[in-house]
Design brief:
BirA Bifunctional Protein, domain 2; Rossmann fold; binds adenosine monophosphate; eight-stranded mixed beta sheet; 433 residues; alpha+beta; elongated; 2 domains; 36% helix; 16 strands
Length: 433
């Protein structure tokens, strides 16, 4: 086989595709209890949405987006001519910007109305260096709540995410919930400035990325994975000393809701997350099994009260999170989880010889029309080989059609577990299975 899938992508083979489908269903069922309803957006959007929403200085937009120019404009670009920004597209690197756009564009928020809560699931694309738990196409499940900045939404969302992880089989003691606040537009600028000055003062001790971040994105220096940077940044100014009263109060309320729910968490002032749109609450869930520390975040999110206005919609507060399917799967595997078996057919129809194949075909169709999962031989194989296949498929019953049975208008039905056989009339076959 010559052509292989692109590096950093995965084929979801049948057992895993089935698991992914159950995984997202478990999420949607659980999220529905909290009022979240499904919504789907395109896997590509105008590049401008991500540039304005997530921020040009973020790694995701700056280095990791898969970008495209719509067909006819490619020639213009090659010729060095200007290509309008609305014919530049990107594969979505995350779900929030698209969902917020969709809510704004479709007028889903009514003035003075209740907040809107939506859930989504699907592939995201980032041109990252592939490794265990880091892919170029990966699946996320996420939620967004738009239309209120009430801290109960943040706490409820965090609790819902933790409940989901437990529901799929990740025990509490294998997870750490980190929380932090990033302040808002009234108090963060002063913090940003203080951090910038600190980075400039210590630039000789910091990596090149962090030196650059002094101008573009100083908060990101706080979660740099380089040991030297982590050491220097441990002495950096702390957000808690800069928070305005409203942000302090908001954060205190989020924590008090979590406390009241008995939810354990660790406050981590270095948690800033990779996307620029966050304000106030940010959080991340890390897992202690299956992946090394750089890839151990299985989910995270926070509040983004300025995002909708940033992309041209009404000024509307929001909160959301996304979790990574592949990382959950790696953690679950490390915890000993097995992939589910494919569903076994209720019935396998076997023919003694070629003379019954047309009848087998018709009976199989009648069964399926009646809602019974049923399989039969497509390869003209011997009865023995058909039984082997029925065994392999773990069929619950096998119907045996032979010339004598067909002449007598009956079918033999064998229960594969008890090996008991009974004869049923052809007319009552479907209802007897
Ligand atoms: P983010 O959108 O960066 O906040 O990521 C949310 C979650 O998506 C993370 O906690 C990971 O579980 C997952 N994730 C992010 N990037 C990748 C990637 N490149 N490969 C696999 N999973 C990812």
């Amino acid at each position: 086989m010559a052509i292989k899938r692109p590096e950093g992508t995965k084929d979801l083979l049948p057992a895993e595709a089935q698991f992914w489908s159950q995984f997202r269903q478990t999420a949607f069922d659980l999220f529905a209890r909290y009022g979240y309803v499904p919504l789907e957006t395109p896997v590509f959007e105008k590049t401008e949405l991500f540039v304005r929403g997530i921020g040009e200085a973020s790694d995701v937009v700056g280095k990791e987006m898969y970008n495209a120019i719509s067909g006819g404009n490619l020639a213009k670009l090659v010729a060095g001519e200007h290509v309008r920004s609305d014919s530049r597209f990107s594969l979505r690197p995350e779900g929030t910007a698209g969902v917020v756009r969709a809510i704004a564009q479709n007028g889903l928020l009514q003035e003075g109305g209740a907040p809107i809560k939506v859930a989504y699931a699907g592939p995201m694309f980032r041109a990252e260096r592939p490794q265990n738990g880091r892919q170029r196409q990966f699946n996320q499940v996420g939620i967004e709540c738009l239309g209120t900045d009430d801290p109960s939404v943040d706490a409820e969302g965090i609790i819902m995410l933790m409940r989901f992880f437990e529901a799929i089989g990740i025990p509490q003691d294998k997870m750490t919930l980190l929380v932090n606040t990033l302040g808002d537009e009234s108090c963060r600028p002063a913090y940003r400035e203080a951090l910038k000055n600190y980075i400039v003062d210590h630039s000789a001790e910091l990596c090149e990325d962090c030196q650059r971040r002094a101008e573009t994105n100083p908060l990101r220096a706080l979660d740099c994975k380089e040991e030297a940077c982590a050491h220097v940044m441990a002495g950096a100014p702390r957000i808690e000393d800069f928070l305005c009263d409203a942000c302090k109060e908001h954060y205190a309320q989020v924590k008090s809701y979590l406390d009241a729910a008995g939810m354990a968490y660790v406050e981590d002032q270095r948690l800033v997350r990779g996307l620029d749109y966050y304000t106030r609450t940010v959080f991340e869930v890390q897992v202690s099994v299956g992946m090394d520390n750089n890839q151990n975040a299985i989910g995270g999110g926070g509040r983004y009260d300025k995002l909708m206005a940033e992309i041209g919609g009404a000024d509307t507060p929001g909160f959301g999170f996304a979790l990574g399917y592949e990382r959950c799967r790696i953690a679950l595997e490390a915890l000993g989880m097995q992939m589910p078996d494919p569903p076994a057919p209720a019935l396998y129809i076997a023919c003694v010889d070629d003379g019954q194949r047309s009848l087998a075909f018709q009976l199989a169709q009648q069964c399926r029309d009646a809602g019974i999962a049923c399989e039969f031989d497509h390869q003209n194989r011997s009865l023995k080989a058909q039984f082997k296949q029925a065994d392999k498929l773990k069929a619950l019953q096998v119907a045996i059609l032979g010339p004598d049975e067909v002449a007598a208008g009956v079918v033999k039905l064998r229960d594969m577990a008890s090996h008991e056989e009974r004869e049923v009339s052809l007319g009552e076959f479907v209802t007897s299975v």
